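Reminder to self: tokens first, then the designed residues, so the page reads top to bottom the way the pipeline ran.
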């Protein structure tokens, strides 16, 4: 058995190559830290400045959300998780959907969900 298979890491990645959060270190930026923080970029510089005031709401996964999510997935050819996010936002009539994904942002707007691209 190779070291990569024994440890669960891809071939060629050793446990000594693993960064602080359990991800392989980037050869360019160093270890992966929480919230996109790297030694050369302070925490939260790439996120929206007002995220601390956002109050996330847990949304139960209901059949109606799944059905609408499947329709969105087939219509826009996006990932299942993205379709569920848009469907959930519609279901609870969310004030806004914050995302860093351009395609998800575009789909949300097409589906009538107010979205902001971060």
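Designed residues (118 positions):
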């Amino acid at each position: 058995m190779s070291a990569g298979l024994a440890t669960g890491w891809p071939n060629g990645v050793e446990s000594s190559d693993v960064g602080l959060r359990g991800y392989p270190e980037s050869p360019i930026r160093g270890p992966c830290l929480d919230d996109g923080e790297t030694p050369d970029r302070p925490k939260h510089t790439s996120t929206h400045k007002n995220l601390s005031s956002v109050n996330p709401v847990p949304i139960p996964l209901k059949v109606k959300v799944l059905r609408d999510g499947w329709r969105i997935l087939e219509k826009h050819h996006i990932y299942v998780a993205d379709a569920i996010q848009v469907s959930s936002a519609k279901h609870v009539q969310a004030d806004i959907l914050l995302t860093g994904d351009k395609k998800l942002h575009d789909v949300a707007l097409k589906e009538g969900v107010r979205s902001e691209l971060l």
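The beta strands are 97-99, 115-117.
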